[in-house]
Amino acid sequence: MNREPQTRLRGRIVAASNTFDDGVVTFRGERIVAVESFASWTAAHPDLAPPPFAGTLIPGLVDIHNHGGFGHRFDTTDPGEARGAAEYHLRNGTTTVLAGIVTAAPEDMVAQTATLSGLAADGVIAGVHAEGPFLSEMRCGAQDPRYLLDPDPVLIDRLLAAADGRLRVMTLAPERPGFAAAAAQLAANGVVVALGHSDAGYREFREALSPKGFGTLVTHLANGMPPLHHRTPGPVAAALVAAAHGDAVVELIGDGVHVDVGFGALAFATARGSVALITDAMQAAGLPDGEYRLGPQAVRVRDGVARVASGSIAGGTSTLLDCVRWAVRECGVALPDAVRAATATPAAAAGLDDVGDLRPGCNADILILDEDMGLRRTLRRGR
User: Does 231 carry a binding-site annotation?
Assistant: First the structure.
């Protein structure tokens, strides 16, 4: 019998499985054991003093596309460096993060993956998101074009071996020769196939997504893609149609820089339950303007916007809680929908169990927010 004491938090509960204006979350050790209305809790515990109302309780945030922060990078072979990035985002409410690596020399990507696999084994991160190198030259954005390749089954095998089961997501462009075989190879090994950095037409992109294709995730919708146009709808329309039908989840960088407020509102209105807010954060997140790096390339941050020498935006400088606030305050998204987009939806899209929700059996990853969505407290696994 587990004799650890129970801890109770009371507040407005906003989560995918449970929503209460006044509710109680009970956890023991690292796991949630009960979520109920305050009235139900009071009836079941008449002899206990009621816990104080703490604020708004939401699940710990889940960022499935993140390259670093506060001077630290995930595209590294230094475990301390990557740990520092994870710790920065944890301090800001992200209790689960996939560490993102970008296009680089194959040897570097393999070495970085091996380093990150060790941190995933230790529970510091939830796994790896490999963004590249099988991407479009036309839509490479801040990916270094020198290292872009057609899908290579040998390199995929090397990355899979280095990850040791912890490569969660890989982003590919569906128009590259060898895509279909690569997608099948990744899916067979439990890796989520994400489509992005693509110049494909509507039909090719849509058919690479479920149910015909292996793709179930779209990397940073509208960024690294041709613009949406009524005669050439391209990947953006294909992604939104797939998301509206429940065939795919679309990532949306909610930092107010990568996409306009109107586009954010459009994405939620089209596919409310299939939007995953992400930061695409890089080394400069949480720091002043200056000179930084993303993969092999130098990045300059001015007025909070990161760009490589070509002028392409090079990742974000916000936290995921910033993105939730942007969705609510700027895009007019209801708080429960914004919270789901930063918790349950990305967790499900990346195949992450026991996170992203407040229900019995989940990790006790809980944020306490004030009335202005300011962060009062972060608990990760009950601590």
Answer: yes
